[in-house]
Design a protein that fits this description.
The complex is a heterodimer of chains A (116) and B (117). By secondary structure, chain A is an all-beta fold. Chain A contains no helices and eleven strands. In chain A, the strands form two sheets. In chain A, strands 2, 4, 5, 6, 9, 10 and 11 form a seven-stranded mixed sheet that branches. Chain A has a four-stranded antiparallel sheet with strand order 1-3-8-7, with no helix packed on it. With 117 residues, chain B is mostly beta strands. Helix content of chain B is 0%, strand content 55%. Chain B is built from no helices and twelve strands. In chain B, strands 2, 5, 6, 10, 11 and 12 form a six-stranded mixed sheet that branches. Chain B has a four-stranded antiparallel sheet with strand order 3-9-8-7, with no helix packed on it. A two-stranded antiparallel sheet of chain B has the order 1-4. Classes of the chains: A mainly beta (116), B mainly beta (117). The interface between A and B is medium-sized, with 27 and 27 residues.
Chain lengths: 116, 117
C-alpha cells in the first residue's frame, strides 16, 4: 500500500510567520508534488520535484519555496505567511507506469492551514 | 488547451443503486491518462481508477468502472451498488507528458455525490 503522510492535519499560523509543511512517502517514488485546493478554484500545482535536490515551479509558485533533501521527503515552505495562503495543502507522490509512462499520483491526507 | 469538464456539481443516488458521474476531456496529445479520485470530507484525495488512452478495454476496480469513449472524449465513472460511504467529492483528472518529460495532472471541478439510505 502506498503511504503518503503529512506532518499536520490542521495548522494555525500568524501573518508573517515562516511555515513548514512536511510530506513523506514510503514507496521510493521519484516525483513529488505540492498542491493547494480552494473552493471554486480546484487543485492548483505549486511545485513539484522529480529527484532529490531538484524542483520545478508549478502554476502558482509565488510566495512558496520547496526543499527535497531526501528522496522520501518533500517540504513546502511559506517564507512569510499571508492570509491569502489560507488553504488546504495536498502533497502527492507518483508512480510511473512502465506500459505507457503515465503517472499515478497518490495523495496524503492534506493540511488545512489557517493564516490569521 | 488541455481541459477536464465535470458538468454535474451534485448528484444523489439511493443506496445499492448504480450511479454515473460524467467527465469529458479535451487534449490534442495522443498519449494521456485519465483518473478518478474520491475526496471524502476528511480531505484526503483517494485514487480510484486509471484508464490509459491506448487501453482497448474499459478499466474496472471492484465496484468502480470507467466508461471510456475515446471518440467522444468522455471518461465517465460508474459506481455500482452504492454505499453510504461513497458520499464524497469525486474528481476526474487527466495527465499529459510535459514537454520536459514530466506528467502534469489536470483536475476537473468535481462532482459531489450524496448516497441516501
Amino acid at each position: 500500500d502506498v503511504k503518503v503522510t503529512q506532518s499536520s492535519r490542521y495548522l494555525v499560523k500568524r501573518t508573517g510567520e515562516k511555515v513548514f509543511l512536511e510530506c513523506v512517502q514510503d514507496m521510493d517514488h521519484e516525483n513529488m508534488f505540492w498542491y493547494r485546493q480552494d473552493p471554486g478554484l480546484g487543485l492548483r500545482l505549486i511545485y513539484f520535484s522529480y529527484d532529490v535536490k531538484m524542483k520545478e515551479k508549478g502554476d502558482i509558485p509565488e510566495g512558496y519555496s520547496v526543499s527535497r533533501e531526501k528522496k522520501e521527503r518533500f517540504s513546502l515552505i511559506l517564507e512569510s505567511a499571508s492570509t491569502n495562503q489560507t488553504s488546504m495543502y495536498l502533497c502527492a507522490s507518483s508512480l510511473i507506469r512502465l506500459d505507457d509512462y503515465q503517472e499515478t499520483q497518490y495523495f496524503g491526507p492534506g493540511t488545512r492551514l489557517l493564516v490569521l | 488547451a488541455q481541459k477536464i469538464t465535470q458538468t454535474q456539481p451534485g448528484m444523489f443516488v439511493q443506496e445499492k443503486e448504480a450511479v454515473t458521474l460524467d467527465c469529458t476531456y479535451d487534449t490534442s496529445d495522443p498519449s494521456y491518462g485519465l483518473f478518478w479520485y474520491k475526496q471524502p470530507s476528511s480531505g484526503e484525495m483517494i485514487f480510484l481508477i486509471y484508464q490509459g488512452s491506448y487501453d482497448q478495454q474499459n478499466a474496472t476496480e471492484g465496484r468502480y468502472s470507467l466508461n471510456f469513449q475515446k471518440a467522444r472524449k468522455s471518461a465517465n465513472l460508474v459506481i455500482s451498488a452504492s454505499q453510504l460511504g461513497d458520499s464524497a467529492m469525486y474528481f476526474c483528472a487527466m495527465s499529459n507528458v510535459f514537454s520536459g518529460g514530466y506528467n502534469k495532472l489536470i483536475f476537473g471541478a468535481g462532482t459531489r455525490l450524496a448516497v441516501h439510505p
